[in-house]
Design goal:
With 273 residues, the protein is of the alpha/beta class. Helices cover 39% and strands 15% of the residues. The structure holds nicotinamide-adenine-dinucleotide (NAD). Pfam families: adh_short_C2 (PF13561).
Length: 273
């Protein structure tokens, strides 16, 4: 097998803001680590004191981790969005990239039937998981360099019905559409906006979906490449999207799922060549 060589400094000198690190298993942390490996700098956001403690512990394990700026951000709080921008200004930071790795739905909406979705649950999932990308982009624009990039994490449940994903699938569909509209609006400043559709990986948010363990197993058995997806595989595509290698790509949705999305049907007894 060909050796995979990573760490080509494709983000050298670039400053990336990464949202959505709940703990060391979060997709966002894998992205932050990959940004550092590629020579970039990071600013992180957290939601609540528990996450701040988790992030500080993770950063303590990496060289220079104690000097990373870690700022509060609840995307439902306009004041926090505004003060994030002012803090970047005070610190003299201009961003070359933003990673949106944020989603939320009430646990009860990720269990029963979609038809039973409550109004409150629908609106909350939309606000946190989709509108937040618009709000975050707008808030950070004054601190973004022209030619920067925004990447949002999404999931196949937006395009196809995935049992129990329910209201989150509809919110992800809105998020993907927002990516295209933002790509158009921000294209004037050559800021690219793309979404990355990851296959299921075990994180706190994933586990909130009923039957998530079965989902991970089924997907790895039925993908083109029959292996479990890892967060670092997702993170490496995220850093690529943030890098100049993807400077001609915007408004795009890229599946990182070992080819699961490409299959229409799996028949018993059929297997790859
Ligand atoms: N885990 C998977 O299988 C998978 C697959 C495809 C896409 N995704 C997406 O990846 C992203 C990251 O999820 P993860 O799996 O790493 O789980 P995670 O639980 O580690 O991260 C989710 C993050 O969303 C943040 N968040 C929720 N509400 C927020 C709010 N109001 N303000 C600010 N932040 C808020 C949480 O604080 C947390 O850090 C999500 O968009 C998720 O939908 C995950």
């Amino acid at each position: 097998m060909t050796e995979t060589v990573l760490g080509n400094q494709m983000l050298k000198g670039r400053h990336i803001l990464v949202t959505g690190i709940a703990n060391r298993w979060s997709i966002a942390w894998a992205v932050a680590e990959a940004v550092l490996r590629e020579g970039g700098k990071i600013t992180l956001t957290y939601q609540g004191e528990t996450q701040l403690g988790n992030i500080r512990k993770i950063l303590a394990d990496i060289p220079g981790g104690d000097s990373v700026l870690v700022e509060p951000l609840d995307v439902c709080d306009e004041e926090q969005l505004t003060s994030l921008c002012s803090t970047l200004e005070k610190a003299g930071i201009f961003l070359d990239g933003v990673v949106h790795s944020i989603a939320f739905a009430l646990r009860e909406e990720l269990d029963g039937h979609f038809v039973d979705t409550s109004r409150k649950g629908y609106l909350l999932a939309q606000e946190i998981s989709a509108f937040s990308l618009v709000a975050l982009s707008k808030a950070l624009l004054p601190r973004m360099n022209d030619g920067g990039a925004i990447v949002a994490m999404t999931y196949l449940g937006s395009e196809r019905v995935v049992p129990h994903y329910n209201v989150m699938g509809v919110a992800k569909a809105a998020l993907e559409s927002a990516v295209r509209y933002l790509a158009y609006d921000l294209g004037g400043r050559k800021i690219r906006v793309n979404s990355l559709s990851a296959g299921p990986v075990k994180t706190a948010s994933g586990r909130a979906i009923k039957g998530f363990g079965d989902m991970v197993k089924t997907v790895s058995e039925q993908s083109a490449i029959k292996e479990q997806l890892t967060v670092s595989e997702v993170a490496d595509v995220a850093v690529s999207l943030l890098s100049p290698y993807f400077r001609g790509v915007t408004g795009e949705l890229i599946h990182v799922d070992k080819g699961y999305h490409a299959l229409g049907m799996v028949l018993p007894g059929s297997s790859p060549a």
